[in-house]
Amino acid sequence: MIEETAEVYEFPCVDRDPLDRWTFGRATLLGDAAHPMYPMGSNGSPQAILDARALAQALSDKRDIDEALASYEALRRPVTSQIVLGNRESGPERVMALAEERAPQGFDDLEAVISHAELLRIADEYKKLTGSDLESVNRGLEAANSRQLKQTRHQVAEEK
Questions:
Q1: What domains are defined for the chain?
Q2: How far apart are the first and last CA of the chain?
C-alpha cells in the first residue's frame, strides 16, 4: 500500500467541510470535533475555548438542556463554518501568497511588494472573521458583564 501511494505528506493539513449539525440528543461537539480547520492564524484552540464558553453560558442561561444545546449550536456553528471556509482561502497566510505572486524572484523590501496599509487590511479582515477584532471582543465582554450584573441582582433579590 505504501509503495502504491502517489503522494505522502509529512505534516498534512486537514480540515473538513462544515457540519450540518453538532448536537445529537444530549451530546454535542466542540473544538476540532465540531470544526477541524487548517492551522491558519493559530485559530483552532481559541475557537475551542470560545465554543466551551458559549456552551457553558447556554447551559447556565437555559433551564432545558436540549434548548441550551440548540442555542449553543445556533450561535457557534455559523461562525466556525465561516472560519473553516475562510482558512481555505489561506487566512492570514494570504500575505505569503501575495508576496510570492508579486515577487516570484524574491524581494529585499516587503513594503515594495505589499504596502503596510494592505497588510493591516488583510489582518483586520481575518480578525473580524474570527471574532478577535476589538469590536467583537468588547461586545463579548459587555455581554458577559451584563449577564454577571443580572445574576448578582438576582442573588441580592433572593437574599432579601
A1: 12-89 (3.50.50.60), 92-160 (no CATH)
A2: 73
Among 132, 39, 46, 56, CA closest to 91: 39
pLDDT along the chain (160 residues), means of 10: 82 85 97 90 86 94 96 95 86 83 95 94 87 82 69 70
Distances (CA, A) of 108 to 90, 93, 94, 98, 103: 23, 19, 19, 15, 10
pLDDT tens for residues 10-36? 777 778 899 999 999 999 999 999 999
- Residue 114: partners with Cβ closer than 8 Å, 6 or more residues away: 95, 98, 99, 102
φ/ψ (deg, to 5) at 24: -135, 100
The pLDDT score that the predictor gives to residue 97 is 87
Helix ranges (DSSP H) in the chain? 44-61, 65-87, 94-102, 116-130, 134-159
